[in-house]
Amino acid sequence: MIRQKIAKGIASLFKRLSGKNPELGENLISLYRGESFPQRNMQAMKDSAKYFKTTLDEMIKDNLSGQWYTPNKEHAKYYASGLLSKLKEIKVTPKELKDFYRYKTRVNKTNLKYANRKDMRFGVTESPHHVIVPRYKLKELPSKTDYLIEDKIMGKYQKGGLATILQI
Predict the structure, then answer these.
(1) Is 58 helix (H, G, I), strand (E, B) or coil?
(2) Looking at residue 37, what is its pLDDT?
(3) What is the DSSP letter of 1?
């Protein structure tokens, strides 16, 4: 069993490094996710976990943390605030993207596990700028991470920030 997991891990690593995934085809759509470091809402989730007497992992799962993506790269960059933030990219087929939008509709019909009222449902926006990728799909899809170093140095930190310190 351990050998199978190692073999799968090595195979997925080679797929990521080569940038090719024969099952996906040619017409791929990029989805982006901006992640700040440290996470902006982590303290609120810790407080909620304590309030509901559950674990932080359960709260993260209930809040769909790590599953939010957008087809708009600039929109994702907005969420990647801070010097150690990063931008993740996954490539999906048009069919998968359509399924993700349907998944969003299904999520909205689901009750929240941790809420003050028992009838509280998810309030995921119907906007096409927000996509929720199911967790099992995130494990399957190859992803690419960009730490936006050039943007940070030359962009928003240029006037009076890091660029001044480095004399750029």
Answers:
(1) helix
(2) 72
(3) -
Angle ∠(131,136,142) on CA atoms, nearest 5: 75
Beta-bridge mates of residue 144:
89
Answer yes or no: are the C-beta atoms of 16 and 142 closer than 8 Å.
yes
Beta-strand (E) ranges in the chain? 29-35, 68-69, 86-92, 131-132, 143-146
Q: Which residues contact 96 (CB under 8 A, 6 or more apart)?
A: 137
Q: Which of 108, 113, 110, 135 is nearest to 123 (CA)?
A: 108
Residues in the chain, pLDDT under 50 = 3, 7, 10, 13-14, 16-22, 24
Tokens linked to 17: 């490094």
Q: Report the distance separating Cα 105 and Cα 127, nearest Å.
A: 11
Cis peptide before 38 (omega within 30 of 0): yes
Residue ranges of domains in the chain: 22-166
In the beta sheet, which residues pair with residue 92? 29
Count the Cβ atoms, other than its own, within 10 Å of residue 58. Answer: 15
Going by C-alpha positions, the residue among 23, 61, 30, 32 that lies closest to residue 45 is: 61
Report the distance separating Cα 29 and Cα 71, nearest Å. Answer: 8
